[in-house]
Specification:
The protein is of the alpha+beta class and about 550 residues long. It has nine helices and 13 strands. Helix 1 packs antiparallel against helix 3.
């Protein structure tokens, strides 16, 4: 598509180009559906797994704290014994006098465990010697060789704040040695001996147990999820079968025809001792009531159809006699008074109208009974041309248009009935629109859906929206804006709908002021198979 510029106008500058956004596009993750919209199976599995997760967390937490408390109590007992041994050893080394440097070796007292920390604090609150820790025995040393203490660099302020009340306390001595369980006791000379045992073994045991509980809990949750999913799926199968039965019933055409409602919930899913069984049994009882109601409705409709068919059939002969006698009397050789002639004309016209109504009722009754129509190839193009010609003759004051494809369009059907469909649609457009209305009849073949599409459109006043829902029902009549002066039977569009449905098609209407379109879709006739080429005649040699 090109555009021209007005001569003499200044050239317009090209719009500035914008650099593409260098920022990467944000990835949008799908929103999680609300919990109430999840399936029952998903919710049950989630609740079971969540309960097990909470239960596992509670059991694991209680187990970890119980083990930690037990290990701390055992360590405190060991610390109390180590403190008593260190106190007695320091008093023995000092012999009641001032604390000597050898007193720092209280960690070497027999019975002290490896890693024991020892320090001596003076009465005025300062450390007399550098704290020492009983080192591990070297791998190449003998069992009788005493363990040697080694000085360590620790947070001395933490040791100075420990009261000499022999109560164990947890103290962080810095990254070099970690946390210790510390207790202090007063010596006979007024100083204090400080003994500590490491918490590394306790912390490692608790951490190992925590890891084991977490791993076991996760594995148990995965296993519980799989088992719960299988169990819930098996438990939900009866409910799925009940839902399947309800969906199968919902797909049946219960609004028309003879409905054989034989679908029921299986007997195995109607056990009154289970919740699903109660639902299945209740659904079976409801389906039984619905089947009885449908049978009664079908019997009543059948009686009405039979009555209409019989009455219509019986009325054809009297109506024909009335028309014949009226026409015979009107054509008598003797002259009749004008009022008698007018009355006979009215009798003949009303008898003709009554005959048309009876014929329409008889046709609808036969279609309701499901009588098969002829299934012959019908050229819809010729039918539409003939129907439009008849409509033009009946309504010369309208503007009639025809829109046909280049190729003929064929369907399988009953030619007289399809011609009646076209005539009724065109007559509906003629009698319900004012003079001068443009009526267009169109035809095309829809290859995608395999249907022939017939349209009858007019630019008249349109159909009221409240009437469109019941337009194809029997004896449906429009308001005064679409009624003809002589009145109508209200069966024309009902016949259109019934005949089109009998041919396996559909008819729809779309209307607004100034545009009304009736659309009929009919299955196309299958394309004829190409004839096989004749075999070449054998050539004989002379």
């Amino acid at each position: 598509m090109t555009s021209a510029r007005v001569a003499g106008a200044p050239p317009t500058a090209a719009p500035p180009t914008t650099a593409p956004d260098a920022r990467p596009a944000r990835r949008r993750f799908p929103r999680l559906r609300p919990f109430r919209s999840w399936t029952l199976r998903s919710r049950v599995v989630l609740v079971v797994v969540a309960m097990l997760a909470v239960l596992g967390a509670v059991i694991g937490t209680v187990s970890v704290f119980a083990l930690q408390n037990y290990l701390m109590q055992r360590l405190d007992g060991q610390l109390t014994s180590a403190l008593e041994r260190g106190q007695h050893a320091a008093d023995r080394i000092n012999a009641g006098g001032p604390t000597v440097p050898e007193a720092a070796g209280v960690v070497q007292t027999p019975g002290q465990p490896t890693g024991t920390l020892g320090a001596v604090r003076s009465a005025d609150g300062g450390l007399l010697f550098r704290p020492v820790i009983l080192a591990d025995r070297p791998p190449d040393s003998s069992a009788n060789q005493p363990l040697a203490p080694k000085p360590v660099t620790i947070d001395g302020l933490a040791l100075l704040s420990v009261p000499a009340d022999q109560k164990p306390r947890t103290v962080d001595l810095g990254p070099a040695v970690g946390s210790y369980r510390i207790a202090a006791a007063q010596l006979s000379n007024g100083d204090s001996v400080i003994i500590g045992l490491p918490l590394s073994d306790v912390n490692a045991t608790v951490a190992r147990l925590t890891l084991v509980i977490v791993l076991v809990t996760l594995a148990g949750l995965v296993f519980a999820f799989l088992i719960a999913n299988v169990v819930v799926r098996l438990a939900m199968r009866p409910l799925e079968r009940v839902a399947g039965t309800a969906e199968q019933v919902a797909s049946l055409p219960l609004d028309r025809g003879d409905v054989a409602l034989s679908v029921r919930v299986p007997e195995a899913d109607t056990d009154q001792h289970t919740e699903v069984g109660k639902v299945g049994a209740a659904l079976n009882r409801m389906l039984g009531h619905v089947a009885s109601a449908l049978t009664a409705r079908q019997a009543s409709e059948q009686k009405v159809r039979q009555f209409v068919a019989d009455a219509s059939h019986e009325l054809r002969t009297p109506l024909a006699s009335i028309r014949g006698y009226a026409e015979l009397t009107r054509r008598a050789p003797h002259e009749l008074p004008p009022d008698v002639t007018r009355s006979l004309g009215r009798i003949e016209s009303e008898a003709t109208r009554m005959t048309s109504l009876v014929e329409d009722l008889l046709l609808l009754a036969r279609l309701d009974e499901g009588r098969e129509l002829d299934r012959d190839p019908v050229d819809v193009t010729l039918l539409l041309v003939d129907a439009l010609s008849d409509a033009h003759a009946a309504g010369p004051d309208h503007e009639w248009m025809l829109d046909l494809p280049d190729e003929p369009v064929e369907v399988l059907g009953d030619a007289p009935r399809l011609h009646q469909v076209l005539m009724n649609l065109l007559a509906n457009a003629r009698v319900h629109t004012p003079d001068g209305t443009k009526v267009t009849a169109g035809l095309r073949a829809d290859a995608e859906t395999g249907t022939a599409v017939i349209t009858v459109a007019d630019d008249g006043p349109g159909i009221p929206e409240e009437l469109q829902a019941t337009l194809f029902e029997r004896f449906a009549r429009g308001d005064s804006s679409r009624n003809r002066a002589t009145g109508s039977t209200g069966l024309g569009l009902a016949i259109v709908h019934a005949v089109v449905l009998a041919h396996g098609g559909e008819v729809t209407v779309a209307s607004e002021p100034g545009s009304t379109v009736f659309t009929v879709r009919l299955p196309l006739a299958p394309a004829p198979e190409p004839a096989a080429a004749p075999a070449p005649a054998p050539v004989s040699a002379d």
